[in-house]
Predict the 3D structure of the following.
Amino acid sequence: MIVAGSGIAALVSDLYRNLRLTHYRNLFGHLREKAGSLSAIEAFSAEVIYLLDRPTISEFADFLGISQPNASYKVNSLVTKGYLERVCNDDDHREAHLFVTKKFLDYYGRQLPDMKSAVSSALSSFTEQEVELLSRLFGRLNRHLNAKA
């Protein structure tokens, strides 16, 4: 078993920090103060909705630990700006799922090329066996983290 003091925790922490900083740099590089643009909170909210994969407003609110009215306010703003749409549940029309729009996916996609390029560049110095091992380790780490969520 690996203990936190073994250095692995620090390496994962550094990797996470670098990934988040790259994300924020890209995010704020695309935010503009003009009509229809996303504020930082709206961008984070839209990303959470995207990552939750079509949640209801209630699921979105519960995940963030915010009130239903606060979540509804954020969702309404994103719908008005064209980044989200509500789709009624076929079985229960009182319940709607939140879907990101092409506008959001275009915005979100502009942040990903830098990450893909950075990872590609880093992996180019690895052997095929190292890439396979890294892939397996990240898979296990993700499964472990998902089980804890």
Observations:
- The chain is about 65% helix and 5% strand.
- The domain at 37-115 is CATH 1.10.10.10 (Arc Repressor Mutant, subunit A).
- The mean pLDDT is 82.
- The helical segments are 8-30, 40-52, 57-64, 68-80, 102-109, 112-123, 128-148.
